Amino acid sequence: MSNKTAYTYTVLRYVHDIATGEFLNVGVALLAPERHYVSALCRTTYGRLREVFPSLDGESFRAAMRHVTHEFERFQKELAEELPLKQTSNGIMGYAHAVLGADDSSLQWSPMGSGLCNDPWLTLEQLYERFVMANEPRSPAHRRHDEDVWKRFSLELQQRQVLRHFAKKTIAVDDDQIEFKHAWKNGVWHCLAPVSFDLASADSIREKAHKWLGQLTSVSKASEDFKLYFLVGEPALPELRPAFESAISILGKSTVEQEVVPESEAGALSERLAAEVHAHEKSAGTG
C-alpha cells in the first residue's frame, strides 16, 4: 500500500529587469492537500543576487521574502485547522497568487509543477535545493538553525490541531531559569526544545550539547516537574555523524527527564502528544 500523496509546486523568481527577462530563482512553494500541508521556502540572503544585479535593493528584497514566508505560515495554520481557504482548486497557484499577484512586478511565480511524494516537507526542501540553492557557494557557517528544525515539528502538531495548546513556560530556580517557547502541562510540564546540530564542525556540535547540559543542570532542582523533548536536527555532512552521536550522549547525562526525537520521528511524536492532549481534554470535560 502506497503512502504517496499528490502535490503541486511553483518556483518564485526574481526578475530584475522585465525588459530583458533575466531572473534568478529565490523560493519554492508547495501544496499537498491530502496531507493538509502548504508551505514555502525563500531565500533569506541576497549576496548572490547582488553579484548578478548590483542595483538590487537588498532590504526591500529581504522584506518581500519575509512577507511571502509569513503568508504561507498563515495559510498552513488555516489548512491545518480546516478553516475556509483561498482558491484551492488551482493547486498551489491559488495560494501563490494570493500572496503575489500575476503581474509585471519583479517577483513572479513559475508555471505550476506536480508530482507524488511520501513526505511533503522533505520534497519542498529537495525542490528548494534543486531550484534555488543548486549553484550557491556553501558557507562554512551554520546550515540550519533551531527555528528550521522547529518548522517540521510545528507543522506536524498543527496538522493534528494541538499546537494551540502549547505556550511559553519558564522553568526557574533561585539563580537561573530557562524559557521554553512551546510547553504543555499534563501533571508535569512537557517542554519542547528544537535543537539543530547541523553545524559547521564537530567542536561546535559538542559545544552546543555541553551548553544545553549546563543549562539543564542549573535548573534540575526546579520546584515544578518537567519533561524535556529534544527535537533534534542532524548534521548534513556524514563526517559529522560521530560528533552528533557524542552530542546525544552528552545530553543524556542530564538528570532531567528527557526524550531525544529526530526529525524523522516528528510525525510519531506529534501523534503521541496529540493523543495525550485529547485524552487530557476528555478527562477534564473540555474536549
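The above is record 1. Record 2 follows with the same two-line structure.
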Amino acid sequence: MFANADLHIHSPYSMAVSRFMQPEHLLAGCQTKGIHVLGTGDALQPSWQKGWEPYLDNDAGIIIVPQGEIEDQKRVHHLILSEDLGQFSQLRDLLAGKCKSFETSGRPHIYLSGEEIAALVHEVGAFIGPAHAFTPWTAMFAYFDSVQACYGSEKIDFLELGLSADSTYGAGIADLDRVPFLTNSDAHSPYPDKLGREFNRIQLNDRSAKDVLESVKKGTIEMNAGFFPEEGKYNRTACTRCFTQYTLEQAVGYHWRCPEDSGIIKKGVSDRAKELAGGGQPRPRPPYVHVLPLGQIIRTMENVSSPNTKKCRAIYASLIGTFGNEITVLIDAPVAEIRSIHAKTADAIDALRSGHVTLHPGGGGKYGTFSLG
C-alpha cells in the first residue's frame, strides 16, 4: 500500500512552536491533510515522549514514528527516526553529560560532532540523516562540502531536502547517489497549511513504524512532494538587508558586500547546490511534485488577504468534505471533479500540475512569490 508520510515536526518544547501542537490536534490535522504516517517530533524530550505513549495506537489509524532533531557542536541539525520510543530513551542515556538539558529543549544542542552523534544513533538501532540539508543556516551543506566531512566514517540513512530544495538540487551530487531523499514539513503548527506541507509517498507492506523505516532504508519512496524551492527565503544569492539579488560571480566580485547598502550578501541555496554538484549529471530520482497549501491556493484565487475569511473557509470545507483530505485535492482528484466544487481552485490546481506557474524567487531572507496560470 501507499502512504503519505511527514517524518519531521516539533513539539511545544521547541522554540516558536504552537501550544496546540499536541497529539490529539496533530492526529486531527493528519486526517484533514491526508497524512497516514507522522513523526512524533522531539522524542528526546522525556515529557513529550511520555505524552505520545497513549496515541501510538490511535483510532485515526495514523502510524506514529518516533522522531527527533538535534543540533551538534557545529550547529548542524540532524534528524533521527526510530522504530520505538525506547530507542530514544537509550540514546538520551548515551548522550547524558553532552547536553545542558533534555527537559527544557525539544531540539537539544549536543556537544558532539556529527560523526559521534551518528555512531550513537546507530548503536541503538535508529536512523539518522541531515535535517533540511541545503538551508543556509544550521544545515550540513551550510558548513560542509560533503557527507563524509560532516559524518566521517558513519553512513547516513537518508537526507532531508528541506523547504529550500527539491530533488533536482541533490540529484547531481555524487556524494548522495545512493542516499534516499525525504521531504518533510518541519511543522511548528498542527494546521494543514503547515502540517504535511511537504511529505513523502512511500510504499508499505505493514502498518508499523518498523516498516516505515524499512521503506526508507530500501528507498521505496514513490514520490516526494513539497514547495517550489524558489519560494524559499534564501533561494537566490542576495543582500540580507535590501534583498537585491546577485549572480555568484557578482557576489564574489563585491566580496560578499552589497554595493547598494553594504549589507551582507548571502549565498543562495540554488548556487550552493550547483557548486556541490560540480557539473555532475543528475541521477534518477522519484518524481517530485510541487504543491502549495490548499488554503493558500484558495486565498490567491479569491484575491483576499487571508485563507481564514468566511468565504475561503467555506470553499475549503466543501473541497475536504467532497474529497476527504487536502492531499487528494492537490494531487489525486480529477480536475473536472474539483471544478464542480470551485472552478478557480480547479484552474489553479490544473496550472500547478502542468507546471504553468510563474515564480519570483526569494533571497537574502525574503520569501519568493508565485502566480498561477
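The chain has a mean pLDDT of 96.
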